[in-house]
Design a protein that fits this description.
This is Kinase-like domain-containing protein. This protein has about 475 residues and is of the alpha+beta class. The protein is built from 13 helices and 19 strands. The strands form 4 sheets. Strands 3-2-1-4-5-6 form a 6-stranded mixed sheet, sandwiched between helices.
């Protein structure tokens, strides 16, 4: 996975501590990539901006390189310059980064860090030498639309509240985007914040482009969907009661049934009637699906649920698409039971998957609506621990060992990855995994087949202490062609 990361940095006087932090964190970022995600090949570029009165010092540009010591040495020569008014040449800096650097890799990240907005009275209430906006005619629309056309993903490091109007304008053009808290001037804390935010921008971008593709239309369509979300649970008394049919597979008994395509046949579905209420707007949107708050009204007391809907199905049968999701869920659930039976004996945290089901509303026909449905997770921080592209977002030895276990238990047939959910005291509770399988026709478009197993897992995995406790075969040995055995 090849990544271009460009830092676009306000280099005026008030940014002096943040310039210093950027200089000191870059080697940490590259070293973390090498350690956790050796399959990520990173190039780093830089565009510093000041203001129009600074003449030849208005912009400083360093094109992409994979020579990190050279990059750090260049940054040593970047200094902060004080100006007379607060607004800065933000659009000039962004435009230069987009048009003058040699972007060439599939995943493209522009990480913008600044404490004041661009020129133009619509962005602030300060005195402004250019109240009508950029003197060269650059606008938020022209710059950001060019960024979209180049398939560049935008991230922002927020330092003050003075950029809020700018961010609102940007969101109205490109949709939602990640912002990171870079407030403060303590040098040690700032370096840590820079390191974490830059590392997160890389893993988030790689996860996004590997799941949805690098085409700007699909990515920015998803970001616009996020603007339409409602994070709050609705007033259930104001929503209508609906009915439907829930369908699920019976848990496989063994590996033979798990591998048997005939086992996951429509005739093996168990169904029952269901009554529920669902929010009108989603509270979350991922690369493939959006999630809605819901309640199961058949239970007493009422059970809180989450219903998930695909953004787009394409020309295929929507029923089959949702069945794939349920099949992924039950297979992962089965493997977690097997894993936990061994983990418990070795005093290792359990890995539990929520068992999602399919719900059909209305009568069967062209207007039938489908969802997956599952119990709502406890109120804890939801995290993505790794992605189906092989990127480790947050390293947890137990979860990496679980993925290794699924590969070994199934004798190299599949690996469960894209692990996300919550971490509790003695267990992980996960949902929405992906499965890479040698049978490329199973498990939907997030299954990258044998290539996924090899490039996204085998080439990236480093056996840890949990792997050793579980007596899993060393991945290096497996890569040399030795067969896996069921534990």
């Amino acid at each position: 996975m090849d990544v271009d990361l460009c830092f676009v940095l306000d280099c005026t006087g008030s940014m002096k501590p943040h310039i210093a932090a950027a200089k000191d964190c870059i080697l940490q970022v590259s070293n973390k990539c090498k350690l956790l995600n050796p399959n990520i090949k990173l190039r780093i570029g830089f565009c510093g901006y000041r203001d129009h009165q600074n003449g030849s010092d208005r912009l400083q540009i360093f094109d992409f390189t994979d020579q990190y010591e050279e990059f750090k040495k260049y940054l040593q020569g970047v200094s902060a310059i004080y100006n007379e008014d607060y607004p800065e040449d933000v659009f000039g800096g962004l435009n230069a980064a987009i048009t003058r650097l040699n972007w060439r890799n599939g995943t493209r990240i522009l990480f913008h860090i600044g404490d004041y907005p661009p020129h133009g009275s619509q962005f602030h209430d300060f005195r402004d030498d250019y109240p009508n906006g950029d003197p060269y005619g650059l606008t938020a629309e022209s710059v950001l639309e060019k960024m979209q056309s180049e398939n560049i993903l935008y991230f922002f490091g927020k330092i003050t509240h003075f950029t809020e109007k700018m961010l609102q304008k940007f969101r109205s053009i490109i949709g939602e985007f990640p912002t990171f808290d870079l407030v403060g001037d303590d040098p040690i804390k700032l370096i840590d914040k820079f390191f974490k935010s830059a590392s997160s921008s890389i893993t988030m971008a790689v996860s996004l482009t590997s799941s949805i593709g690098s085409g700007s239309k699909d990515i920015y369509d998803l970001q616009r969907k996020k603007l339409e979300m409602d994070l709050n649970e609705p007033d259930w008394n104001k929503l209508p009661l609906q009915t439907g049919v829930i369908m699920r597979y019976i848990l496989p008994k063994n590996l033979v049934e798990l591998k048997d395509l005939k086992y996951f046949n429509k005739s093996n579905l168990v169904s029952e009637s269901f009554s529920f209420k669902i929010a009108t707007k989603p509270f979350s949107a991922g690369t493939e699906r959006c999630a809605y708050y819901a309640i199961n009204t058949k239970k007493s007391p009422i059970e809180k649920m989450v219903m998930k809907e695909y953004h787009r199905i394409g020309k295929g049968n929507p029923f089959e698409k949702y069945l794939e999701a349920v099949e992924i869920s039950i297979v992962s659930y089965f493997l977690s039971i097997k894993f936990n039976s061994i983990a418990e004996r070795n005093k290792i945290h359990k890995v539990n998957f929520i068992n999602a089901k399919l719900i059909r509303t209305g009568t069967v026909g062209p207007n039938t609506q489908y969802y997956t449905i599952e119990p709502k997770l406890q109120d804890a921080e939801y995290k993505r621990f790794n992605s189906n592209s092989g990127v480790i977002v947050e390293f947890h030895p137990t979860l990496e060992a679980f993925a290794h276990y699924t590969y070994q238990y199934t004798k190299g047939y599949l690996v469960v990855y894209d692990l996300q959910g919550i971490e509790l005291t003695d267990q992980y509770v996960l949902t929405d995994p992906a499965i890479h399988c040698v049978d490329a026709l199973r498990f939907g478009r997030t299954n990258f087949g044998e290539r996924g197993i090899k490039q996204c897992f085998l080439e990236n995995h480093k056996c840890n202490d949990v792997c050793k406790k579980l007596k899993l075969k060393n991945i290096d040995t497996i890569n040399k062609g030795q067969k896996c055995n069921i534990l």
